[in-house]
């Protein structure tokens, strides 16, 4: 038993190191050339935040494996030698909340501060905003915790008469208890009037996790519901709309000339906005124009990429075209696999969560049977489904690209992502990762039973005063399924059509 637990600790350490190195690789390859060799603090926050998000997703499979480490224990104290998962869960999500609500906003305020100001003034300005945010959050958390930070559990008062200890035990569906005169325990047949509500104060860390989960659940329902459909269908329709052949040189010159004119106009507009910024006239109109220029720049980059795909150049032009074709074939394969996983997710939510009582435990049974084949096969499949849900959230956010009340979706591009966009997306991933874990702990309650995650996200969270009704009536699950269905209908009706660029200059068909 001790050897198994030691192996689990070693695997956890190795996975954390690999996750950290992989996130450094992502940062290096996604960052904009303008951020090279600078903005080190935002970069550290990005790598650390992505690592926390990935580790939090992996902790649920680790929690299951940790539970299995002592299920065959021959003495009561064996489980004390396993990982302290409840403490790890609370620690990881408190760090998550601190990053989302304090550290990432500070890094964004600092990064987007006036470059002409000194470092000290930029830090002071960012700190002012963060301190104000911290005071408001602390007041809200304190008031909410004092007024509604309680968990209400429905309990039933049970009592039973005593009886002589029998010489033999014979229990069946007709006799569940000891004794010959009574075929059912008094506790078993207790009336509904014996039910009462037992109230206890939730711990403050658990309450922080609960509120962060509610905020993340709203975003998760919107982005996840859209993403679970658009992630595979976007890949499939991207293959359908792929360039079928290489364009001629004359057509390439014509399109490149138009894009060049567009680039000059955008540069001229950007210079004018920068001049307005220097003069201090940063009003609502200025911000609106900045967003318009950013949108046009993204459209221009998409047009340039499409043009390069249709007319590869250089000595390895044929190789580039072959790689483009293989890339679209990969999208086809991944789209088909993703569609299978998305359908399985939607079916599982309907069968196991929305229908009461559940028709079947579905994917829970699949994971259990995979564990019977090989000890970690079910855990690996379980981790894959959790990760896929997080990818669906990211895909939904990128697909919508809409302007919300307080912020705008920041796109991420390979080799062209500024740190403010990086920080925003890391905050979004961190916030939604809490809800993904809670959603998975609920959806796979049978497979993840008796885990620390089930205790935090299952029993305690769904019993908190006020919050419990959102889970009692499956508000988030229903919203998820509705948005997934609407997105599927939208793609079925319009996804097969070739997208028309909304910028001024469009590629010729």
Key phrases:
membrane; disordered C terminus; LMBR1-like_membr_prot; mainly alpha; globular; 509 residues; two-stranded antiparallel sheet; transmembrane; LIMR family protein; transmembrane helix
Q: How would you explain this protein's 3D organization?
A:
The protein is mostly helical. The protein has a two-stranded antiparallel ribbon. α5 packs parallel to α14. It contains 14 helices and 2 strands; from the N terminus they run ααααββαααααααααα. The chain starts with a helix and ends in a 14-residue tail after the last helix. The chain crosses the membrane at residues 6-28, 40-60, 90-111, 123-148, 207-240, 332-355, 375-402, 422-447, 475-494. Residues 249-310 form a coiled coil. It comes from Datura stramonium (Jimsonweed). This is LIMR family protein.
Summarize this entry quickly.
This protein is an all-alpha fold and 509 residues long. Helices cover 67% and strands 3% of the residues.
């Amino acid at each position: 038993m001790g050897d198994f637990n030691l192996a689990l600790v070693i695997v956890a350490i190795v996975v954390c190191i690999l996750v950290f190195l992989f996130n450094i690789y992502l940062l290096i390859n996604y960052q904009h050339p303008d951020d090279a060799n600078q903005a080190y603090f935002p970069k550290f926050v990005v790598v650390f935040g992505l690592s926390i998000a990935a580790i939090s997703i992996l902790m649920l499979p680790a929690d299951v494996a940790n539970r299995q480490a002592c299920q065959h224990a021959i003495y009561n104290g064996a489980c004390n030698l396993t990982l302290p998962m409840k403490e790890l869960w609370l620690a990881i999500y408190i760090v998550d909340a601190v990053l989302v609500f304090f550290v990432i906003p500070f890094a964004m305020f600092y990064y987007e501060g006036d470059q002409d100001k000194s470092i000290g003034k930029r830090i002071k300005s960012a700190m002012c905003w963060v301190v104000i945010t911290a005071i408001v959050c602390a007041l809200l958390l304190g008031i909410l915790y004092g007024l509604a930070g309680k968990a209400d559990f429905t309990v039933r008062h049970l009592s039973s008469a005593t009886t002589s200890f029998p010489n033999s035990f014979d229990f069946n569906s007709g006799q569940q208890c000891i004794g010959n005169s009574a075929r059912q325990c008094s506790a078993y047949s207790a009336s509904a009037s014996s039910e009462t509500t037992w109230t206890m104060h939730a711990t403050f860390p658990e309450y922080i996790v609960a509120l962060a989960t509610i905020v993340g659940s709203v975003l998760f329902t919107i982005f996840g519901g859209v993403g679970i459909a658009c992630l595979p269908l976007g890949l499939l329709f991207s293959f359908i709309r792929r360039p079928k052949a290489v364009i001629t040189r004359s057509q390439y010159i014509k399109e490149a000339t138009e894009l060049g004119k567009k680039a000059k106009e955008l540069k001229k507009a950007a210079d004018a906005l920068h001049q307005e910024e220097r003069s201090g006239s940063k009003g609502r109109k200025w911000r609106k124009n900045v967003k318009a220029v950013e949108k046009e720049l993204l459209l221009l980059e998409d047009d340039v990429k499409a043009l390069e795909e249709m007319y590869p150049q250089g000595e390895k032009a044929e190789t580039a075209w072959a790689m483009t074709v293989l890339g679209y074939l990969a999208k086809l394969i991944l789209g088909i696999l993703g569609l299978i996983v998305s359908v399985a997710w939607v079916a599982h939510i309907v069968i196991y969560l929305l229908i009461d009582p559940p028709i079947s435990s579905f994917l829970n049974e699949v994971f259990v049977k995979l564990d019977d084949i090989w000890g970690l096969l079910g855990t690996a499949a379980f981790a894959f489904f959790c990760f896929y849900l997080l990818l669906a959230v990211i895909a939904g956010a990128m697909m919508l690209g809409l302007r919300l009340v307080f912020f705008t979706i920041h796109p991420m591009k390979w080799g062209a992502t500024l740190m403010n966009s990086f920080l925003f997306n890391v905050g979004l991933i961190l916030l939604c990762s809490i809800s993904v874990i809670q959603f998975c702990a609920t959806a796979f309650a049978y497979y993840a039973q008796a885990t620390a995650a089930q205790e935090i996200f299952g029993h305690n969270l769904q019993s908190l005063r006020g919050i419990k009704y959102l889970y009692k009536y499956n508000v988030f699950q229903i919203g998820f399924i509705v948005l997934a269905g609407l997105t599927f209908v939208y793609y079925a009706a319009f996804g097969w059509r070739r997208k028309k660029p909304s910028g001024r200059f469009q590629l010729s068909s």
